[in-house]
Amino acid sequence: MTEAGVEKIIAVIDPSHEELFRGATKALSVKSVAGGATRSQSVRAGLAAVGAADAVLIHDAARPGLTVGVISSLLAALEAGADGAAPALPIADSLRRADVGGDVVAEVERDGLWAVQTPQAFRLDAIGAAYAKAGDATFSDDIAVARAAGIKVRLVPGEARLMKLTYPGDLAILEALMGARTTCVGSGYDAHRFGAGDYVTLCGVRITHEKGLLGHSDADAGWHALVDAILGALGDGDIGAHFPPSDARWKGADSETFLRHAAKLAADAGARIVHVDLTLVCERPKIGPHREQMRARTAEVLGLPLARVSVKATTTERMGFTGREEGLAAMATATLERPC
Ligand code: MG
């Protein structure tokens, strides 16, 4: 039995999703049964698989924000004598009826109106009998089936996080309501030695210079530091692990490949890069004239608004290897929002 007093969880799934379901519920004790062509048929299949029980909660998986508190309220309502119970929220917006053209035709009094959520709780024998009585008729939810059979249903307080995922933008709202994302900051550092050449590549921008930068790839220390910062926020190793210098494929490689790969790893992990900040450390070449182009290139590759990309530069007052112009260095941080 779970903390909420739930003895058994049965998921009604599309049989073609069996493998996805197994992957998603590996650590859970959840049985699955095949659903039908309609919601009613799927509920019937679920009810048939319950076995012996006093109460059953019928829930839409499109509302993943279910809490122990809501389950407890529903079970308490049944214990207090209700035959059915559902969570609901009062309606905050004004209501109007409009015609098909969008013109308002009537005011609608919102007093006494509620937005009903799931799970909807019933005594198992009562809802089973209600579905038997319902035959092939179509109902919008289980309350409708229950009420058609004369079952009284009581509303208990719902929760905003029980919202139904309907539109693509709903996911971000739900994640925020559930506190389902966390912010991670990664840092990266890189340095490359100057050598023969007549240009350097920094943050994807080619800059004419009296020296080049030595490295297995294009020696773009700025983007290399940034790749490590993104990998750091993901906890996914470092640039050397993903693009070993021993691998001939990366000889002379354009660092855009590395940065795009890091961004893809972030996306694959369900993470969003929200901000990056780079500092280039060198006496020369002067970064100032190229700074905005570096920001723009970085923003373009990461798919970020320009305001979320910072490129800064500093010198070390002629101290150390950067001061002696033996090489240049770069530091970066990347801020990512990740699933918890
Ligand atoms: Mg490097």
What helical percentage do the residues reach? Answer: 25-40%
Task: Count up the helices.
Answer: 11
Question: Could you give the order of the helices and strands?
Answer: EHEHEHEEEEEHHEHEEEEHHHEHEHE
List unreliable stretches of 5+ residues: none
Biggest pleated sheet: 5 strands, mixed
Quick one: overall form? elongated
Bound molecules: magnesium ion
Distance between the termini: 25 Å
Structural class: alpha+beta
What is the CATH topology classification name of the largest domain?
Spore Coat Polysaccharide Biosynthesis Protein SpsA, Chain A
What's the pLDDT, averaged over the residues? 94
Number of domains: 2
What CATH first level of the largest domain would be assigned?
Answer: Alpha Beta
How many strands appear in the DSSP assignment?
Answer: 16
The CATH homologous superfamily name of the largest domain equals: Spore Coat Polysaccharide Biosynthesis Protein SpsA, Chain A
Oligomer: single chain
Spatial extent as radius of gyration: 29 Å
Any guess at the CATH architecture of the largest domain? Alpha-Beta Complex
Report strand %.
Answer: 25-35%
